[in-house]
Amino acid sequence: MLHTPHGRVETPFFSVVGTAGSVKGVTPAELRELSAGVLLANTYHLFLRPGAKTVHELGGLHRFMGWDGPIITDSGGFQVFSLGFGLEHGVGKQIGMFPGDAPIPSRRQGAKLVRVDEDGATFTSHIDGSRQRLTPETSIAVQEALGADIILAFDEPTSPLHDADYTRQAMERTHRWAERCLAARRGGDQALYGIVQGGAFEELRTASARFIGGLPFEGVAIGGSLGKSKADMHAVIDWSIPYLPESWPRHLLGIGEPEDLFSCVESGIDQFDCVAPTRLGRHGQVYTPDGRLHLSRPELKEDARPIQPDCGCYTCRTGFSRGYLRHLFAANELLAYTLTSLHNLHFILDLMRRIRAAVVADELGALRDEFSSRYRAAYAAPDVSPQLAGGQ
Amino acid sequence: MLHTPHGRVETPFFSVVGTAGSVKGVTPAELRELSAGVLLANTYHLFLRPGAKTVHELGGLHRFMGWDGPIITDSGGFQVFSLGFGLEHGVGKQIGMFPGDAPIPSRRQGAKLVRVDEDGATFTSHIDGSRQRLTPETSIAVQEALGADIILAFDEPTSPLHDADYTRQAMERTHRWAERCLAARRGGDQALYGIVQGGAFEELRTASARFIGGLPFEGVAIGGSLGKSKADMHAVIDWSIPYLPESWPRHLLGIGEPEDLFSCVESGIDQFDCVAPTRLGRHGQVYTPDGRLHLSRPELKEDARPIQPDCGCYTCRTGFSRGYLRHLFAANELLAYTLTSLHNLHFILDLMRRIRAAVVADELGALRDEFSSRYRAAYAAPDVSPQLAGGQ
After folding, report:
1. Is A330 within 8 Å of B59 when comparing Cβ atoms?
2. CB atoms closer than 10 angstroms to residue B223
3. Complex-level ipTM beyond the 0.85 threshold
4. What is the architecture, at CATH level 2, of domain A2-275?
């Protein structure tokens, strides 16, 4: 159980992502009806637009986005580096990870989009091409102005393309920045989490978990490269967790496909966030117990069944048919995005509730076996591998 | 009071437009919460995509779109002719009427998009450029397959650019088509409305109202050109209504800006439909008692007030600030369209409720004076003149 200034929340939990201060296509009332507990918003996006001052003037992030439950903000580090390095090297969660993604246009093709120095990072805004700067101190100041319940230390994540040498340098810088973040906070009732880095290198992850675990944070996030496979991801978790304080909640940044939840919870992860439910939904892919269903499939044109007949979400309960949803996508109707997002969010939040109950009843293995025996079976979908994990 | 197979509805009422089988950005549950009574969907759009057979296979229009209240479908005539003539001559409600409208791309630039003959109309689909055909008989068959509560006769509307001679020819053809629509219906519990045409010519409108009023329809719609000004529009209504049966409900097609409702109800109009609340909302324009507020205005950036402080809609009640809404538009967040559409629909539906109460209390004049003394006063917005009125 996590206690926050905006209420208690049971762990493990899935945070719904509201990147720029809204969950795309879903109202706070609908989130309440979904029993969504925690939202995660992105410091990078809100820092660039509308700016922390504006959010603060408008009453802080909770009032701004009409959400009186707990909110997490990331530090901006992931976006600063993934939008820079990722764009330069064609890797990262932002590009090509999901179907329909278009590369983010760069105003300075070929130019270095992000420069890191000991003090902080200078980067190019993806919105207007302007040069911007974040440091541990400004990231904390921005996050304090936004006013989320849980805030994150400013870090330098690395990608699977970085070698051990650079990953070590970035990790050590992240450690020095972690101490500066702790020194910069003005107190208040926000929980500050440290971030473990070190890429997919056992020695570095262990060192980072030891270092971050020894600082006076209230919790921890595991960020940066989680390797090139699900096996790598689990190794990274297993290398890190033994060196972190038992009492700290542990957040795995940017992860949360249905098949990931079981194994990560088994490894000791308490908090997740992922754009997948809403982003996949907007691209016409919906979760079912059998795997992802692509609503664009022509044979669904006159399929009168709901996405998942025994589902309790608004979309399935109301009886919207697969044929209707397919039509809404064909006609570019806005309602398509709302109805699929509501279903996918319900699917993942409901799965997380069942996982919580199974943990309490000591039946997690049985639930995982039941889930795994069906999921992916009917609807094959390309695997989405988290090359660069982070707060987005 | 209007009795339909899907419930009773008090007149005068405003029908919320769900062109392609969904109200853009708004769920049926939200429409219920708004106490929206009647929806209007477009036969033209549903005929082209997904097709009447598909809607029928998926349980009919009510089940298709998840709406168990009354539904009206227009006949397709307005879209067939406005997308043809309108595109060729640059007039019509579809193009340039609302801010941000882009011309609908034509696959056959320069070609005639619609050809009318005595039997029906052949036209080019705006979706895929294919040649399509509707006749009075097929329009009724399509509308019967869709299964709305109120259906409309297939007509040939004219624009203000048509002269008296052509307007008379089209009107007389509309009259012959009206008789064919009545002969084509297979019965059932759908109400079939005739459509009065005749442009802005007194002699023609009078003749059309006499002719249509003498046929065994269950109600009537006033369509086609309503002239070039609000004064013309009221003249057209006043020429038509005296010749129509007292017991028939009268629908004014495509009209429904706040300032129109009072005078049209005073003239005897019972039913309205208009895309303005949702379309203006999607373009960042919201109704207030003082007129339309443009959310793009820079001085709203840190305006913490809701759109309208005393408004009971979800958006205002939750306290979403003008600054937040402005941010959502700047960031192209889908939630922007939902929140402004909810407010605008509440505004117009609530105004209609107050008009109904004022009619009963014989205080319509006082309500109109109170409304008019404020509306437009503070926020000037370009007048939207209905050059070609119709079901869209």
Report:
1. no
2. 32
3. yes
4. Alpha-Beta Barrel (3.20)
